[in-house]
Structures are given as C-alpha cells and as structure tokens.
Design goal:
Number of domains: 2
Helix content: 55-70%
Distance between the termini: 25 Å
Number of helices: 9
CATH superfamily of the largest domain: AhpD-like
Mean pLDDT: 97
Oligomer: single chain
Radius of gyration: 16 Å
Order of helices and strands: HHHHHHHHH
Length: about 180
C-alpha cells in the first residue's frame, strides 16, 4: 500500500497551512484524516467546507449521525466509524442510535430507520433511487430539501471514506476505544 504522510503545519504544502490551523481550532488537534488530506489542499478545503455545510443542514444531531454512520458502515470505513462514534457522543446522541448504526441493527424509531434506508439507497444505487424510495422517505416526515441534503452528506463521506481506504489512515488516539469492524 502507498505510504501517505500525516502532515502537520510544518510539513504540509503551504496551501494547507491555514486549513490545518482551522482543524486545530475546531478540534484542538489535527485529525489524522485532515493530516492525510493536507497533501491535496483542495481536498482538505472541500472536505472542511462540506463538513460545515452538512452540520448546517436541516437535519438534527441524531439525523446527521444516522446519515454519516450509515455511509461509514456501508463503506466499511475503519477510521470514520470510530471517529463518528466519538463525535456522536460529543453531540449527546443516544448510544442506542450509535450502536444500532455500528451493528446494522434496527434503530429506535421508524423515522430514523427511514433515513438510514434512504441514505443507503442513495449510496448503493449511486443516486438512481426509484420514486417509491423517495416517496417512502417523504412519507416518513422528511422533505425534498432533505432528499438533497442526503446527497450532501454522501459527498462529504465519499471524500473521507475513500481517502481513509487509500491511505489506511490511523484512527486518532481519542477514538481508538471506539474501534470498529464490520459484522460478519
């Protein structure tokens, strides 16, 4: 496997310096994902921007977690599942939601289950979701805006999940306790 550098502000390309400063300010550290992405400043900038846009979407914290983790688990991302487990805890998302997502077991509400189902349909079908799936999502209480916001979440997670697969990004120390492997 290709060795990717975990950059810091001194080793990163100049165009990534301010972006890594943003990471330090936001997280109190440079997450290893950002350290890898710093090799390509446009990727890191795009990821940071999409991350903020998705946080600013109309989804609440539980729904945001469902979208992120449904994608992370589907993509079998060894880095993002533990990281978003920690993020969900910091967002005070019920551990039952996190565990159901990590273990691919039923979520506590039919609305959250509909969100996971729709998100997975978008991922698995590469956006070619049939009208029945869209209608089921809308019937569960979501909006057309949220149909498109799922696409935003998918775009963000493709950037991180694929980077982590390519770079075999090491899980950050604070998230190691949330290590995850796809159930057989």
């Amino acid at each position: 496997m290709t060795d990717f550098t975990l950059h810091n502000i001194e080793t990163a390309p100049k165009d990534s310096h301010a972006l890594l400063d943003n990471s330090l300010s936001a997280f109190g550290m440079i997450p290893n994902l950002h350290a890898v992405m710093a090799e390509a400043p446009g990727l890191l900038e795009g990821y940071q921007r999409l991350h903020q846009l998705f946080l600013d979407s109309s989804f609440d914290d539980e729904e945001t977690t469902v979208v992120w983790q449904a994608i992370n688990v589907e993509h079998e991302c060894h880095y993002c599942v533990p990281a978003h487990t920690g993020i969900a805890k910091s967002m005070k998302v019920d551990d039952a939601i996190t565990e159901a997502l990590r273990n691919e077991t039923p979520l506590p509400t039919s609305k959250l289950e509909a969100l996971r189902d729709f998100t997975l349909s978008v991922v698995r079908n590469r956006g070619n979701v049939d009208n029945e799936a869209v209608q089921a999502f809308l019937d569960a209480g979501f909006t057309k805006r949220q149909v498109l916001e799922v696409v935003l979440g998918v775009a963000q997670k493709v950037m991180s999940n694929y980077t982590n697969h390519l770079a075999d990004t090491p899980v950050d120390k604070p998230f190691e306790k949330f290590e995850w492997h796809k159930a057989d």
